UniProtKB/TrEMBL annotation:
Belongs to the flavin oxidoreductase frp family. It comes from the Bacteria. GO terms for molecular function: oxidoreductase activity. Gene3D superfamilies: NADH Oxidase. Keywords: Flavoprotein, FMN, NADP, Oxidoreductase. This is NADPH-dependent oxidoreductase. SUPFAM superfamilies: FMN-dependent nitroreductase-like (SSF55469). Residues 11-169 form the Nitroreductase domain. It comes from Bifidobacterium scaligerum. It holds the Pfam family Nitroreductase. The keyword Cytoplasm does not apply.
Amino acid sequence: MVTNATIETLLNRRSIRKFKDEAIDADTVATLETVAQRAASSQFLNDWSAIRVSDPAVKAKLAEFGHQPYIATAPLLYVFVIDEHRNARIAESKGIDPAGDDFKLKTSYRFTQAQNDAVLALHAMETAAYSLGLGCVILGSILNDINGLIDLLNLPEYTYPVLGLAIGKPDQEPTLKPRMPRTMQFFENTYPADSENDLSEALPAFDAEVHQYYDLRQADRPVDAFSDQIATVSGQDVSGKTLLDKAAAQGFTLDK
């Protein structure tokens, strides 16, 4: 492999869930936020926003939603959201009624593109933070209570939460989590017809590698083999755990 400082930052990425009790200075905050703004944006709609959470009470509530106490200890904490609310106000100023059929930024296509843009911005911020010696963890867990999250952050019509990002100076050194062989995840031109055979060749070694990994959250035992994890998760009933049940109430028409 070729390498440089950026590649090394990305290759050494790991989730940090314990932070030193040290604030992040204003210059660093400005840098991280500016980097996030430079991420790709579909059709230059800039259809995401991020809420910087500094209120300890709000942090505690987010930790409650996520069932993860460390969320409340993050020196820097963001919630990234789809934001067509701002564009709705701009369109309205140009004579387009956001409540009418002429306003198309509330459809499933725009929702998905805005979600992608928010994730790209979050990832840019995360990478920049790691390059500055900080640690991060992406927080999908705060979506456990979509209704509560929308109410807590006072999210207006045409906005929707996507992910959280906790940032701070690392106070732990987890080992790098294994990744599957490239041959299992990268294909040439088309999806392989004989994917079952490919798995039989590469999966056993990956299972063994994963089973040797120790996660700091359960430091007393190795994690389950990858295939066992997939089997367990594939059998979990999450039919009642929908993430988009509040989308209509937020103004989005995801059936169009």
